[in-house]
């Protein structure tokens, strides 16, 4: 009986409220559609002159310097500039920003030494920035290095990244190959 009276009074309360004014939370779409237009204000833009010279001094130089000129080649360090012969191959090896050959050394963990129970490490030479037919480059490089060393070497070609990894060859011989091809 108590719950029946409460329901009747709640129904009477809700009908009396709806007769007066409908609240915003009861029907938000009705209030959103019938809202009066409010005047719009636009922001004013003011351009302030800024002296960027202080910031520009801190920015890195994006211009790659020209190839340095020397009296004789190769220089005492063994560096030589690229020649026109490099354009005759089906592949091209781009130099780095500092005009050096893109040769890098990597040390990788190799097989487990069973006597010492420690891993042996192997040094790999990585040739990067190879464009064009990378498999021709790898084939000629392998033939050149194997002729110099008198033993086979292992190579791995990553065509998507333009890299060749060489195991079992010193960096100096790979430099000789690239200089002989004009890169």
Keywords:
183 residues; alpha+beta; Translation Initiation Factor Eif1; four-stranded antiparallel beta sheet; two-stranded antiparallel ribbon; 5 helices; 6 strands; 31% helix; elongated; disordered N terminus; Ribosomal_mL49; Large ribosomal subunit protein mL49
Strand order of the largest sheet: 2-3-6-5
Radius of gyration: 38 Å
Give, in order, the helices and strands.
Answer: HHHEEEEHEEH
Shape: elongated
| Tally of strands | 6
Q: Strand-residue fraction? A: 15-25%
The residue-averaged pLDDT reads 84
Largest sheet: 4 strands, antiparallel
Task: Give the full name of the CATH homologous superfamily of the domain at 90-180.
Answer: SUI1-like domain
Which structural class is indicated by helix and strand composition? alpha+beta
Instruction: Tell me the number of helical segments per DSSP (H or I, 4 or more residues long).
Output: 5
CATH class of the domain at 90-180: Alpha Beta
According to CATH, the fold-level topology of the domain at 90-180 is Translation Initiation Factor Eif1
Low-confidence stretches: 1-11, 15-19
Based on the structure, what is the oligomeric state of the protein chains? single chain
CATH architecture of the domain at 90-180: 2-Layer Sandwich
Distance between the termini: 100 Å
Helix content range? 25-40%
